[in-house]
């Protein structure tokens, strides 16, 4: 039994930030009901290719995007635009501890499904809204997309080739980091609200903003600006404050070296047969190496090109110099450490057969996470949930279905 096995979550969210939050709670044991539109479901069900293949190699309707954020949930289809659908959601909310939604500001109030409405049927409800810009402010009613938030929140201004590199331009992250981090912060906020409820009996409203989150996770970069008043620049794969701490070319690819102190720097160049570089007065300390990086880095690149990536990593690991390869995803999942940790898992699925998933990274000794269910097919659990939670019989369910409400 997971740590949250006593918690019921009603997930009204779509796409990434909300579902990521709900999946975290589900992995920790919460019973998560994912509410989807009849006939179409979550937009991400259709975001592909790729789509998962069944045991015969035939492509199914299960998109890789949807798969990554919806395990351990049950799916129910409800049309919340219809009064009967709204009533079903209110009844489900009354049986839930947490509601998660990411509709535009004010949208759910039109259906009587906003916090003020639902807390009347569940006074101790924890209600989490996730939007691009939050519930207040001049941008509150703007739609929030991760790519735009990465740009507005400063991330792209420090990501990409160095500012003085010819042809350099700002770059977004390879994954939707504003969405993912907002989902992570939302999970934490919900857990805090549950603890507060358990102590006081009070529910509360949580207002999560992608823009707030993006600025917060800039961490030392945001702090550097606030401390110095200097606008941070792009450094590509290098560090503005540590040298060498970047990618280096080898004879057959690229590697990462992070020499965080003077001893590690000496071990690095010694392993490459160039120990004299560490004795150069221009490079004997990190501040000096930062000051003279333009002279130093070409020397180090000349050195690293003399050996293969594998040779370098073996040498530097033996010398206790932080280093690593830049793996593609085939190499990621073939890595011996990744295999040992069981990062790739499989779960039975009604159409795919055996579905490949990425395990939760949360490793708890007493209440471990587990995959109880693969991501659901659309509406897979509609009848089950209506029977179990709302005690509706088959005839009523059939009437609801005939009206397109479920």
TrEMBL record:
Keywords: Transferase. The keyword Metal-binding does not apply. InterPro entries: CoA-transferase_III_domain, CoA-Trfase_fam_III, CoA-Trfase_III_dom3_sf, CoA-Trfase_III_dom_1_sf. SUPFAM superfamilies: CoA-transferase family III (CaiB/BaiF). It holds the Pfam family CoA_transf_3. PANTHER family: SUCCINATE--HYDROXYMETHYLGLUTARATE COA-TRANSFERASE. This is CoA transferase. It comes from Polynucleobacter yangtzensis.
């Amino acid at each position: 039994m997971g740590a949250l096995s006593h918690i019921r979550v009603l997930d009204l969210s779509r796409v990434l930030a909300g579902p990521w939050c709900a999946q975290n709670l589900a992995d920790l044991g919460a019973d998560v009901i994912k509410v989807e539109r009849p006939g179409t479901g979550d937009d991400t069900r259709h975001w592909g290719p790729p789509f998962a293949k069944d045991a015969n190699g035939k492509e199914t309707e299960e998109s890789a995007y949807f798969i990554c954020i919806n395990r351990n949930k049950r799916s129910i289809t409800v049309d919340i635009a219809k009064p009967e659908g709204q009533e079903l959601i209110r009844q489900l909310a009354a049986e839930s501890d947490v509601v998660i939604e990411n509709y535009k500001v004010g949208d759910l109030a039109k259906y009587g499904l906003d916090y003020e409405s639902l807390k009347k049927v569940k006074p101790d409800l924890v209600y989490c809204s996730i939007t691009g810009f939050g519930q207040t402010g001049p941008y509150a009613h703007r739609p929030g997309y991760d790519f735009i938030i990465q740009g507005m929140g400063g991330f792209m201004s420090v990501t990409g080739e160095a500012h003085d590199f010819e042809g350099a331009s700002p770059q977004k992250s390879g994954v939707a980091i504003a969405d993912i981090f907002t989902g992570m912060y939302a999970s934490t906020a919900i857990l805090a609200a549950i603890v507060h409820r358990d102590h006081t009996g009070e529910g509360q409203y949580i207002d999560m903003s992608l823009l707030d989150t993006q600025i917060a996770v800039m961490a030392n970069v945001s702090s550097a600006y606030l401390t110095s008043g200097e606008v941070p620049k792009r450094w590509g794969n290098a560090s503005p404050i540590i040298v060498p701490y970047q990618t280096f070319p080898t004879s057959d690819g690229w590697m990462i070296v992070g020499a965080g102190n003077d001893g590690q720097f000496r071990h690095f160049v010694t392993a490459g047969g160039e120990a004299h570089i560490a004795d150069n007065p221009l490079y004997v300390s990190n501040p000096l190496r930062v000051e003279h990086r333009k002279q130093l880095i070409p020397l180090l690149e000349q050195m690293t090109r003399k050996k293969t990536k594998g040779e370098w990593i073996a040498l530097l690991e033996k010398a206790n110099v932080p280093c690593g390869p830049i793996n593609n995803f085939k190499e990621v999942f073939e890595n011996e450490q990744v295999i040992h940790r069981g990062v790739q898992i499989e779960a039975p699925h009604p159409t795919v057969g055996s579905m490949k998933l990425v395990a939760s990274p949360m490793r708890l000794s007493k209440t471990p996470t587990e995959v109880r269910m693969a991501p659901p097919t659309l509406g897979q659990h509609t009848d089950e949930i209506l029977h179990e939670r709302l005690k509706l019989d088959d005839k009523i369910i059939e009437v609801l279905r005939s009206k397109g409400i479920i």
